Amino acid sequence: SENYHEADSLGFFATDSANNSFLIDDFWFGPASIIDIFDAKAADWFMQKHKPLIDQGIAGWWSDLGEPEKHPAGIKYKAGSGKNLNNLYGHTWAKTTSSFYRKNYPNQRVFNLIRSGYAGTQRYSTFPRSGDVKRSWAGLKAQLPIMLTMSMSGIPYMHSDVGGYAEGVFNEELYTRWVQLGVFSPIFRPHGDKHPTEPIYYSEETRKIVRNLLNLRYELIPYIYTMAYQQTLHGKPLVRPLMYEQDDDYLLDKYDLYYFGDNLLVAPILEAGANSRRVDLPIGTWLDFFTGEEYYGGRTIEAGAPISKIPVFVKAGSFIPTIKAQTSLPLIQTDNLTITYYYHNDVTKASGELYLDDGKSPDAIKKGNYQLFSFSAQNSDKELSIDISHNDGVYLLRPGRREIELLVKNLPGRPENVRVDGKGVEFRYVPKDKQVQVKFTMGSAPVNIKIK
User: Fold this and answer.
1) Does the annotation count 363 as an active-site position?
2) Could you report the per-residue pLDDT of 55-92, keeping only the tens digit for each?
3) Catalytic residue status for 253
């Protein structure tokens, strides 16, 4: 190609023993040479080739094969031998991409999908995938320890090709169970070879289930985005093994059950034909995320899991912020927010938060261009008091006022009255769901809701 001959003439490829460009005959797509990413001039030349596409609106990159996939003995870089630099190639590629954006597009975030890296690669806006995983139940099951151990190692956005990538057969049950796991993963991204991963190619029953799951993922974006903020600021993993929250040697090698943020406990279905599974609930009080059924922790339960359901539990005393589902992230609006509080009489105090910004600025936290909501609940025998406030931070297109829907689930009965900032308001009580619904408008001032 034209680009190949240009890079070859400039000496920008890794070299052989004669200092000629090292030609690999059987790289993934055919004969190829590898950019010397350790050479500053070669790296800059390579990134300049990205610029016209970035200027057209490309917002992310798939930096694939960065091991590199083919790395023959004898290959040399300006920084040393390929043997000594093997693990650093993908890392340096990610750093190069990040540095290029910081210099040339300082107001733009980059999404860099990778499958190779090193300690510290997470600094460079990288989103690693677990590779070309096998389309099988064993392939699905393997994603849990990969995702959780990488998260505990400081790599927070590890995820898999939802549905599986390679080999295997067309399997609607496996696909559905993998989508369920993907919805409660740091990144949701179907991808596959030979067999499609788009829902349109599956049965009407599967499409309906997957459609509901996709809507749920979009609804949970405020919760997930807040998890990303907490990870950035405090280093908290988005997904966490049970041992992260509970110090118990028994939990050290338990990977089939995990926390999704502070409040949700996820128990994926990992076996063919399973309609239920055993769940070791951690200490505390838990509510079925979908049905509201109440469980006390510190014991093992058998959780029902028909094909349309993944067992998910929410910790009593949790605040979960959500929005109306959309078909694409750029369409999401936060003018209307739903805040759900999961009540339990044993929980006397609770707190939570919600982080929002423009979704674009890489320095939103550093510059203070964000809005951070704080939620708190105080529960006495006769009254539940909920306070909602925020830092009144400013960012581009931030709504000045928001319509808030507060849902309080698991209340034992219909309240006598509900007051917002001391004034009685109308409310709706749904006995079947044991749920109270209150709506109000929120500007810059804090709001107090009392339910008696």
Assistant:
1) no
2) 999 999 999 999 999 999 999 999 999 999 998 999 99
3) no
